[in-house]
Amino acid sequence: MADIVSQKSIVRQKSQNLYRVLSPEGNPELRIISLILHTLGYRLSVQPIQS
């Protein structure tokens, strides 16, 4: 039971941090954006602009 409570606490803390980072006042680092995208199954890539 203590494990479940601990896990819920960790999830709550992470979700609060995520809201803070993605808020208008937040300033997410590229590393954070990359982690979020990876979690969602995406990746960030850079490609040259076609002229």
What does this structure look like?
The protein is mainly α. Helix content is 63%, strand content 0%. The protein is built from two helices and no strands. 0% of the residues are buried.
Explain the layout of strands and helices.
Elements: H1 2-22, H2 30-40
Low-confidence stretches: none
Largest sheet: none
What percent of the residues sit in helical stretches (DSSP H or I)? 55-70%
SS element count, helices: 2
- Write down the overall mean pLDDT: 79
Helical/strand content category: mainly alpha
| Radius of gyration of CA atoms, rounded to a whole number | 16 Å
Order of secondary-structure elements = HH
What is the CA-CA span between the terminal residues?
60 Å
Shape: elongated
Strand content: under 5%
What are the key terms here?
elongated; 51 residues; single chain; mainly alpha; 2 helices
Outline:
The protein is mainly α.
